[in-house]
Design brief:
eleven-stranded mixed sheet; two-stranded antiparallel ribbon; Amidase signature (AS) enzymes; 16 helices
């Protein structure tokens, strides 16, 4: 019951499910295969914090028994996955990517981990991340307990933050899917840099109970996978109201690809979408727009002139300082890896309350403006990032700041809007580029449909990295 590496590298979640149900492989065989991939390839890219072989083999054995008995939990049953190491897992270290928390263990699973277990998925690893999800203002890729996350497309390039290990592991085909988190760019950026498909859900769509809090009003958990369709399958398993998270949404979510449109989409492009972008990023984006014109209409527009970046930064800094107040007062920041992470929290802690309250008032205005804008469209389309991944030796003041830029990332996260980021080509140094689709709050099925239709007409998501 073995399948060669090439078949597994190209397999979607639906493909893996078909292999399991046809007897071509078993959940135990898959767990062992991906544990080995993570231990060798995954560690090479600093993607792994902790492997979970005992738990994985126990869960895989149960999946094999259940499937053999005709008890099918759904499309994730028997499929291995990894968790960004800010999601609590019972009796397994959850380090938050930071040396001061390297021995931290929780007695219970986070809700997202429990829901994946209930869906029959098999946890094989806790994956690397930027320390404390980047909330202390890191300025270089080394800010992690595992060292800098590396891209499977070029090991001298950064994999992106703060879900660095999730991006590297999925991109290197060391795990079929992973859970990442985003407060501002932490799913979209590593998805773009590592050539994977990532979904940032609507704020509150996925319970954050048991996940590290950085910014209570902006944190979101979401899937990082090989395709938009895979992201939809994972979101279906983890979405839903959770009484343990009062910010979770009451609205039911069900992924329904069979009901999705595949044309007639109403799309918008920001008038400055490629301003300042690397030439290859701009060229790949224009080529992608050509594909999307076959799927519907595209209108050019401008975002309302509002201080998106300043509002996002103010809210994150104020809430991060509060979330880690006891840690900072204890002097714990002195044990963080990045020198700037030991200093920046001092400034965050004296942020005036009036600035935070002003940011919250402007945020409500941003939410109304973005909702009105998106009410006319299925998605706003933009490059995933404006540059490919920067060298691991380069500070973010040179690379990451260049990669962001048009205000859409800040606006989308402030307003809690869903986004899907998928590969759309390659740029300098052989690194992936990406395109993202940002939709109205609650419209995950719509943005997944647009991204899925794009991927049905392209094969960038099926390209394999040279260093995997």
């Amino acid at each position: 019951m073995s399948i060669d590496d090439a078949a597994l590298a190209l397999a979607s979640l639906r493909d893996l499910g078909a292999m399991l149900r046809s007897g071509q492989t078993s959940a135990t065989a898959l767990a062992k295969y991906y544990l080995d991939r993570l231990d060798s390839v995954g560690r090479r890219f600093n993607a792994v914090v902790t492997l979970t072989p005992e738990r994985a083999l126990r869960e895989a054995g149960r999946a094999d028994e259940e499937l053999a008995a005709g008890h099918d939990r759904g499309p994730l049953h028997g499929i291995p996955f990894g968790l960004k190491d800010l999601v609590a897992t019972a009796n397994t270290p959850t380090t938050w990517g930071a040396v001061p928390f390297k021995d931290q263990v929780f007695p219970r699973n986070a809700t997202v981990a429990a829901r994946l277990e209930a869906a029959g998925a098999v946890l094989v690893a806790k994956l690397g991340m930027v320390e404390l999800a980047g909330g202390m203002g890191y300025d270089q890729p080394d800010a992690s307990i595992t060292g800098p996350g590396l891209s499977p497309w070029n090991p001298e390039a950064w994999s992106g933050g703060s879900s660095s290990g999730s991006g590297s592991a999925v991109g290197a085909r060391a795990v079929p899917f992973a859970i990442g988190s985003e407060t501002w760019g932490s799913i979209v950026t590593p998805s773009s840099f590592c050539g994977v498909s990532g979904l940032r859900p609507t704020y509150g769509r996925v319970s954050r109970h048991g996940a590290m809090a950085l910014c209570w009003t902006m944190d979101k958990l979401g899937p990082m996978c090989r395709s938009a369709d895979d992201c939809g399958l994972v979101l279906d398993a983890i979405a839903g109201r959770d009484p343990l998270d009062e910010t979770s949404l009451d609205a039911l979510f069900q992924y329904r690809p069979e009901q999705q449109r595949h044309d007639g989409f109403r799309l918008a492009v920001l008038e400055n979408a490629t301003a300042g972008a690397q030439p290859e990023v701009a060229a790949n984006f224009e080529t992608a727009l050509g594909v999307l014109r076959e799927l519907g209409t595209i209108e050019t527009l401008a975002l309302p002139e509002l201080p998106y970046d300043a509002v996002a930064m103010t809210i994150i800094r104020a809430e991060a300082s509060s979330a880690f107040d006891a840690f900072l007062l204890s002097g714990g920041a002195s044990g963080l890896t990045a020198p700037e992470d030991r200093i920046n929290p001092l400034a965050y802690s004296v942020l005036p309350a009036r600035d935070y309250l002003r940011a919250l008032r402007i945020r409500r205005h941003i939410q109304r403006e973005m909702d009105a804008l998106l009410s006319r469209f299925d998605a706003i389309v933009a490059p995933g990032t404006r540059t490919v991944a920067g060298p691991i030796s380069e500070s973010f003041s040179k690379s990451l700041r260049r990669a962001a830029g048009d205000g859409l990332g800040a606006a989308g996260n402030i307003a809690g809007l869903p986004a899907v980021c998928v590969p759309n080509g390659f740029g300098e140094r052989g690194l992936p580029t990406a395109i993202q689709f940002v939709g109205r709050a609650g419209a995950e099925n719509t943005v997944l449909a647009v991204a899925g239709a794009y991927q049905q007409r392209t094969d960038w998501h099926r390209r394999l990295p040279p260093h995997g």
